[in-house]
């Protein structure tokens, strides 16, 4: 009996319990079946960028988990219309986000640039009066506010509340929720 309750066995038991609790707590709350857009199903986030006053739309495709970061050239003093599309392989998953718009929200973070964002009218108006952000207007004040500027784009699932105002360097903030997808785009002049 004393061999079972010795210090080494108690430490091993506590270590196993700690690891078990950590693994279980790191999993998403619901199963993939409960999520309308499970993380594992998104393969690409494409930003369609059109400089206002032109008719040319250029796609910038971020491939989730594949490495490589697309670079979006922007000009100071210019305004751009940007549409976000989400893909699962060759299938467009943006419709699933629109269908569950009250469960999604996009956060645009420009930590090394000065860019103003306006969420445009579209079919992504949530019941709380906020837009998901699938179509936006970017007013570029200064692309290169410090070295190596970039955009970090997060698609949040099931936030308790959302705010589309600027918070620090990000346009949009949430309380609660989980990240369904995340992309990074380099920015240049």
List the helices and strands and how they pair.
Elements: H1 7-25, E1 44-51, E2 57-63, E3 71-73, E4 79-88, E5 91-92, H2 94-99, E6 104-109, E7 114-119, E8 135-142, E9 150-157, E10 161-167, E11 170-175, E12 178-188
Parallel strand pairs: 3-12
Antiparallel strand pairs: 1-2, 1-4, 4-5, 4-8, 6-9, 6-11, 7-8, 9-12, 10-11
Question: Explain this structure to me?
Answer:
- By secondary structure, the protein is mostly beta strands.
- The chain is built from two helices and twelve strands; from the N terminus they run αβββββαβββββββ.
- Strands 1, 2, 4, 5, 7 and 8 form a six-stranded antiparallel beta sheet that branches.
- The longest helix has 19 residues.
- The chain is globular.
Key terms for this structure?
12 strands; mainly beta; about 190 residues; single chain
């Amino acid at each position: 009996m004393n061999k079972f309750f010795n210090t080494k066995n108690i430490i091993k038991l506590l270590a196993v319990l700690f690891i078990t609790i950590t693994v279980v707590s790191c999993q998403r709350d619901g199963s993939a079946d409960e999520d309308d857009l499970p993380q594992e199903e998104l393969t690409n986030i494409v930003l369609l960028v059109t400089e206002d006053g032109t008719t040319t739309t250029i796609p910038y495709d971020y491939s989730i988990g594949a490495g490589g970061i697309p670079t979006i050239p922007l000009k100071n003093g210019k305004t751009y219309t940007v549409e976000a599309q989400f893909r699962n392989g060759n299938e467009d998953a943006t419709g699933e986000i629109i269908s569950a718009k009250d469960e999604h929200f996009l956060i645009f973070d420009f930590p090394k640039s000065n860019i103003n964002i306006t969420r445009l009218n579209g079919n992504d108006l949530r019941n709380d009066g906020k837009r998901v952000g699938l179509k936006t207007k970017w007013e570029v004040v200064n692309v290169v506010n410090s070295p190596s500027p970039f955009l970090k784009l997060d698609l949040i699932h099931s936030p308790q509340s959302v705010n589309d105002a600027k918070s620090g360097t990000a346009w949009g903030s949430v309380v609660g929720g989980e990240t369904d997808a995340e992309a990074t785009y380099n920015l240049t002049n």
